[in-house]
Amino acid sequence: MAQKRVLMKGNEVIAEAALRAGCRNYFGYPITPQTEVMHYMAKKMVQIGGNFVQAESEVSAINMVYGAAAAGARVLTSSSSPGISLKQEGISYIAGAELPAVVVNIVRAGPGLGGIQPAQGDYFQATKGGGHGDYRNIVIAPASVQELYELTVEAFNLADKYRMLVMILGDGTLGQMMEPVAFRDVEPIEVYDKPWACTGRGDRKEHNTITSIYIDPDTLEVKNRELQDKYALVTANEVRYEAFGLEDAEIVITAFSTCSRISKNVIRQAAELGIKVGMIRPITLWPFPSQIISETAAKSNVKAFLDVELNAGQMVEDVRLAVNGQKPVYFHGRMGGNLPTQKEILDKIIEIHNGGNN
Amino acid sequence: MIDFSVILAGFGGQGILSAGKMAAEAALFEGKEVSWFPSYGPEMRGGTANCSVVISDEPIGSPVINDADVVICLNQPSAEKFEASLKPNGILIIDSSLFKFEPTRKDIKFIEMPASDIATELGNMAFATISMLGCLSKSTGCFSRESFESSLYEVLPERRHKLIPGNLSAFDKGAEYAK
């Protein structure tokens, strides 16, 4: 039975969820607006005998993650945009070595040091690579504090299942806000054997090796193909999204996380004006829910898409690929740490409804 | 009640963020959906602080408020800034012990209440915001006094329960200024 709901901050819920998922290793470096993840871990890890290290930099933190993951442990690090950029080398190595780990990015406005207010400008970085080489991370975008909890637990399962890095992509709004959360009595922890883990040679004939270096091109290409096969499997199995109102929608909003919440209010207001608006909210940003978007674009009731983001237009590229020219795709974005107002989005909907051109 | 929204604003250290959280806890106790979103970053004592609280019977869309039903201000800069954020017929509540304010809008309700004087009388400055929550509760019914009281017992650690009667006195005094 679900326990009663408690009011908690998004960042703290991420940390609590990780502990509930069996994570006993946290390595990080403070940065606004995600530092409460660290605060919570610093307090709790000591109490339960886990490992907490405030590393000397983000670079060392991500390499500590590599180490703990190589030893088969569930491990978490968290940061915000500039800090995540610093971690990218390690993230690429983790992908190359096929290590399971969870990385949280509570995104702030960029580029560079940017600002500390909410943004979604790291969509490209999170979903298209970020580090070097042909690799993917599973990227999950929760939209509420309750989802931060459930999807963080899920992230650890997915990481172990596929030996992949799973990134939780939030933003300053989600990290800083408080909402009620109901924790489960028992977490759905999936346990996967890790015969590859470096836990000492034991009875094995050969010691295990964790590496991402393959000097011989043919050997590396085989490895590359294996990775791509795995990513294809993840794409087939793990796409998640929320969709509603598609059956009679004239306009379909695509938005993730904070923008999807603001848009939900707008959809209600549009309905009062007699404009039917539906929504597709990607929960996994990679793998991306292309199929539902493509199928929706083919529907005769759907006249146009409106993509809303806290950036200059990043996810909209994936939406356009999925729509593939079947219908126009409009975009509304805010940057710098600003959020779109409901009125802005509603005005855009009215404009599209009246046959506006971008 | 759908997406009823309150902005609380003032100087850092006045208990703005805590008061917002107490309002959210009281509404949560009634089984409502709630969200609380703070201004964050280089905030400090003496700087400005604000938070947005949304209370709703339905899942909350945006935790970010553009048009508030109520704005509660504990300093003049906040009143000047957030008066514009009120819906028509919204309520602006200010602590008149701390500053004087003349609203420029004619389409809002304006409540001046001596919150800090009430707190001084009760011997605890932290009660200023509590008295304003009393006024909020009585003016709008966004949460009841009973829920406020029950949530205090639930949220506060037991060693702090001795403060609850004082909190409730402040709450009741503030409710007298409701419009």
Radius of gyration of chain B: 15 Å
Q: What is the number of beta strands of chain B?
A: 6
The interface involving the most residues is between: A-B, 25 and 20 residues
| Helix fraction of chain A by DSSP (H/I, runs of at least 4) | 40-55%
CATH classification class of chain B: Alpha Beta
Q: What Rg of chain A, in angstroms, do the CA atoms define?
A: 21 Å
Element-by-element helix/strand order of chain A: EHEHEHEHEHEHEHEHEEHEEHEHEH
- The H/E string of chain B reads EHEEEHEEHHHH
Low-confidence stretches of chain B: none
Spatial strand sequence of the major β-sheet of chain A = 3-2-4-5-7-6-12
Average pLDDT of chain B works out at 94
Percent strand of chain B equals 15-25%
Terminal Cα span of chain B:
19 Å
* Shape field of chain B: globular
Examine the coordinates and then state which fold CATH places here, giving the name of the CATH topology of chain B.
Pyruvate-ferredoxin Oxidoreductase, domain 3
Strand content of chain A: 15-25%
Number of structurally distinct domains of chain A:
2
CATH architecture of chain B: 3-Layer(aba) Sandwich
What characteristic shape of chain A results from the CA principal axes? globular
CATH topology of the largest domain in chain A: Rossmann fold
Query: Which CATH first-tier class of the largest domain in chain A would you pick?
Result: Alpha Beta
